[in-house]
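Tutorial, part two.
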Amino acid sequence: MKLTSSFLLAALCALQFVASSPAELPYRDRDEPTRTRTRVIEVTETVTDPDPPVGPPTRTVTETERITVTQRPPPFTVTVTRQGVCTPRPPPPPPPPPPHPVDPCQLALKHSRLVQVYQYYNPTAEDHFYTTNPNRINGGGYAGRTPVFKVYERQVPGTLPLRAFWKGQTRTHAVSSFLKTIQSFYKGGFVNEPNQAILGYVWPGGKCGGRPLQQLYKGVINYQKKYPQGNVYTRQRGVHDRIYTIHQGQVDNLKRQGYKSEGITAWVMP
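Running the prediction step on this input gives:
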């Protein structure tokens, strides 16, 4: 016969122990996990009263212990956010302006200078001679220095040499900066002028204010000579004279004197 009385319930309540607060492990380090240990003891008592009663009732006490361990979650990562005024990144600076194009005419005058070309004439040979240095005229029948045009003293990018030629058989001088004209001079027996093969440098096509240099030629003409006795002889005399000018009025005047225009042979500075 089983009997559970009120006093047994009171005893059970007295024996039952419940941890009022979890026992937490001492804090040692932030990275060390924190454990919460809860210990609960449950006591159950059973009284058996024999029937018929033989002796005092038999008491059986059963004690059950339940332990719960709770572990703190893994260490967390702390993110610090700094608050302040957000200043926008300034825009990149604008690209530098492109350099101003270099004026080739000004560049030429910066690295070189214009020199005067003089014209001399030999009436005996009926030949015109051109040079930039009057000291190169050492007699030879040439006189009458006349400035006719200008050229650059040194070569700068884009300029062409103005070449001077000489043909001894006909005592003829010539100048040109055109390749085809130069080749025709060489084929015709001309050689480089020994005193000054290059007069200077010129722009092609009238660049930087260049003026066309006209070439005029006088070939074989009738030559008359009057002797003191009054006799006049007319014969053919070989004349091969080339004259150069930048003035149209002089071109027209030379045509009236028997010269024929052979076109432009270079572009020179006035």
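Residues 6-15 form the longest helix (10 residues). In part three we will examine how such features are distributed along the chain.
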